[in-house]
Amino acid sequence: MKTLFVTSEVFPLNKTGGLGDVAYSLPHALHYQGADIRLILPAYRDVLGQMRDLTLISRHDIDGDGCTHSVRLLQARHEDFELPLYLVDCQPLFDRPGNPYNAPHGEGWHDNAERFTVFARLVALVARNLAGLDWQPQVVHCNDWQSGLVPALLSDLHERPRSVFTIHNLAYTGQFPAALYQRLRLPETLWHPDGLEFYGDFSMLKAGLQYADIITTVSPTYAREICSPQLGHGLDGVLRARGDKLCGILNGVDGQHWNPQTDTYLPAHFSADKPQPGKRACKAALREYFFSDQDGAAVERPLFGFVGRMVGQKGIDLILDVLEDTLTHSDADFVFLGSGQREMENRLQVLAARYPQRVGVSTRFSETLAHLIEAGADCFLMPSRFEPCGLNQMYSMIYGTPPIVNRTGGLADTVTDTNAASLNDGTATGFVMPTADAASLADAIARALEHYQQPALWQQIMHNGMTHDFSWGQRARQYLQLYST
Ligand code: ADP
Fold first, then answer.
1. pTM of the model as a whole
2. Does residue 368 belong to any structural domain of this protein?
């Protein structure tokens, strides 16, 4: 099966979140299962700088915002990629430093609509074998709003590949003003409520939802949730109407990069059968990173970790609501890695200044520190209000760090709450909050601490998570089946 996988970010080139991990690991899993899968993404400055070889394939004049851009299709080589990699190079749109979507102050780049329209137009040419590759994909697999226009641009052609559109997060709708639609010269025939129009604007995410042959999202529970007004972000009607084309497939974990036995970011290694002394050494290194001048006994104290974007979705405000009380009434310590809304970052920094030996905060983007927290913490915090799939809770279970999660989306599908029955049948892997509020979180933290004080029970919960199969194998096969239906 020949598949073109379209993404706006990919690990290790320019990852900002879960999509970056999946855009690397899913195509590689499919490649190992024999698919001819190739990856295409914009040629951001950071990405170009990491390439070993670049070959010009073709050059095209592509309509932008009131102008025409000269766009190059490049073939690239990078040592971490075992499959062909193509870059869409348009200097005025992609040759700039920093985040792929946001300007330095955190708001979206002013020309995002133009950037991802030009990107989609070139991808559509590649999909039709009109870009000099002499390769015709049978399937074009698009991901999130940044590639949502691709299925729409292909929709009225007789000879075209099938399109698959995966929702990694419905909250980001890629919504832009109607005036831009005109200026970008997007097809007038697609401007209607059953097309790209979205409450008077247009939405690139909606384009993918309306025109893809198949829609997937990254967990079965999220596939159901987004069909309801509560989590539908105004698109639940569209999703209900296309319900027969929508399915949820859980993301898998890339066992090459997320494996405590081999992880090159860690100072020590460990396994489900022998978690110690490796995990303890990781904890000591993690504590040393965040807390200076501590005595040897500090490593015995329970340590909670958080890694993620600091936004309302991730429930960071719920953690802030219970943090001080937990610090007062327990001996638990906390470390946080992530950036996002300034207000949340600042509130955490205030607590870190007040409790310098018990609360550690880093607002960097650090792959090394993310791995160290997954490995070195005792318990992982992920009380997301909604979570399409979530990767961090799976990483934490594999690293023997039982997560505290809210019962939503992929968190509900991957974490089994600890109770008498699940301890008995060996399925307990974490602590599930019935609702996303501070009281449920406080209760889950208290339950985790209670179990942590009973080493035999805690080791069993760790072991259950560490031995669970979170690999891509079966999940990638589900994609292969979809591609060929
Ligand atoms: P989302 O896609 O909503 O951001 P996921 O849990 O699916 O959430 O994936 C987040 C990914 O991004 C994980 O690999 C996580 O480790 C990583 N990540 C998030 N913030 C940071 C950060 N500040 N430094 C390093 N990695 C981060």
1. 0.97
2. yes
Q: Verify whether ligand 1 is closer than 6 Å to residue 391 (CB atom).
A: yes
d(CA 374, CA 379): 9
Pocket test for ligand 1, best of 258, 392, 394 (most atoms within 8 A of CB): 392
Q: pLDDT of 226-284, one tens digit each?
A: 999 999 999 999 999 999 999 999 999 999 999 999 999 999 999 999 999 999 999 99
Q: Residue 394 is part of which domain span?
A: 278-466
Distances (CA, A) of 102 to 16, 108, 109, 341, 452: 11, 4, 5, 13, 40
Other C-beta atoms closer than 10 Å to the C-beta of 273 total 8
Instruction: Say if 48 falls within a structural domain.
Output: yes
Chain segment 421-462, per-residue pLDDT in tens? 999 999 999 999 999 999 999 999 999 999 999 999 999 999
- For residues 175 and 299, state if they share a domain: no
Do 228 and 301 sit in the same domain of this protein?
A: no
CATH of residue 437: 3.40.50.2000
| Residue 265 counted as domain residue | no
Q: Are residues 247 and 319 in the same domain?
A: no
- The single-letter code of the amino acid at 388 is P
Any ligand 1 atom below 6 A from CB of 17: yes
Beta bridge partners of 41: 87
Distance 370 CA to ligand 1 centre (A): 8
Q: Residue 176: beta bridge partners?
A: 202
